[in-house]
Amino acid sequence: MKEKDCIFCKIANGEIPSKTLYEDEMFRVILDLNPATRGHALILPKAHAADLYGLPEETASKILVLAKELAVSMRDRLHCDGLNLVQNNGEAAGQTVPHFHLHMIPRYVGDGQTLGWAPGEATQEDLEEVRAVMTRQDAL
Ligand code: AMP
Ligand code: ZN
């Protein structure tokens, strides 16, 4: 299903041209216009889902299989030294385009990119509180 005015729906379905690396019935893989590194690609499902919460299970289960194939291809063809998968959900997490996409960011020794987070601190009580919330039988 396409969403009116969604730029990634239009790209995924070929209405707006893109540098496409791969396409099948369910996905289009494109190069990011503002790449973090050489080869930065986005896996776009063709059917609109704003984020991971709304992603159909079949799409969710197939996307990592595709990501794995692309990862091998990036390693072998771009000769990257590493690879980050990034997937943002919600503005608070840095999502700027509200159509689910999985970033594949090849990494090169000395590429100067900074991805990641500042390690925080948690007490055993903090960890236990989260564990209890997340494993409550009525919550999942
Ligand atoms: P996010 O911040 O996770 O929502 O990522 C959105 C990504 O889409 C950014 O890395 C942008 O550079 C990229 N982007 C936005 N518009 C386009 C476009 N028309 N073609 C390719 N990449 C795009
Ligand atoms: Zn869309």
The count of β-strands is: 5
Main β-sheet, in a few words? 5 strands, antiparallel
Rounded to the nearest angstrom, the radius of gyration is 17 Å
At the fourth level of CATH, the homologous superfamily is: HIT-like
Give the secondary structure arrangement, pairings included.
Layout: H1 7-12, E1 20-23, E2 27-31, E3 41-45, H2 57-78, E4 82-86, E5 102-107, H3 124-135
Antiparallel strand pairs: 1-2, 2-3, 3-5, 4-5
Written account of the structure:
The chain is of the alpha+beta class. The chain has a single domain, classed as HIT-like (HIT family, subunit A), CATH 3.30.428.10. It is 29% helix and 18% strand. It has three helices and five strands. The protein has helices at residues 7-12, 57-78, 124-135; strands at 20-23, 27-31, 41-45, 82-86, 102-107. A five-stranded antiparallel beta sheet has the order 1-2-3-5-4. Bound molecules: adenosine monophosphate and zinc ion.
